[in-house]
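Dear H.,

Thanks for agreeing to be a second pair of eyes. The structure we're designing against is below in token form, covering all 150 positions.
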């Protein structure tokens, strides 16, 4: 009986210490991107102003004179699955003088939902047959046995 009480106390302690009351929040990129983008003035802010507000550029495309910043916030649901609840993406275009000429902002509602199919593509060369699977497994066993003796 004494052992059961100790076991119960240990299990209860493990369960309670592994739970957290604070929300698990992982941030990737620039935090509060939506608010910081509003501080950049088109035709007035230059590259140095943007660096001061948003920090170093995350992705830079030299041909188009475009800087890209993003913010991704994810949390864990009650079953441990990751859930993205903020996905902001900003493109800042500069003219030849380094002045911000256009800002495009995308948030989670503007993102496209892409559904992936579970279908598998059939190959034309070799079909999965019983004999092919049998020969492949036999070949793998022979290779593994040979590796053991080497």
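And this is the sequence the design step returned. I haven't edited it by hand at all.
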């Amino acid at each position: 009986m004494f052992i059961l009480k100790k076991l119960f106390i240990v299990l209860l302690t493990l369960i309670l210490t592994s739970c957290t009351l604070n929300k698990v929040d992982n941030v990737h990129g620039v935090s509060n991107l939506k608010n910081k983008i509003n501080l950049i003035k088109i035709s007035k802010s230059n590259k140095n102003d943007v660096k001061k507000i948003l920090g170093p550029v995350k992705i830079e495309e030299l041909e188009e004179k475009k800087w890209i910043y993003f913010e991704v916030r994810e949390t864990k649901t009650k079953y441990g699955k990751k859930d993205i609840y903020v996905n902001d993406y900003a493109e800042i275009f500069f003219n030849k003088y380094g002045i911000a000429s256009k800002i495009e902002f995308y948030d989670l509602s503007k993102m496209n939902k892409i559904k992936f199919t579970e279908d598998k593509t059939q190959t034309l060369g070799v079909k999965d047959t019983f004999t092919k699977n049998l020969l492949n497994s036999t070949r793998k066993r022979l290779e593994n046995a040979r590796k053991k003796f080497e």
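Two observations from my side: The mean pLDDT is 82. The longest strand covers residues 82-94.

Warmly,
E.
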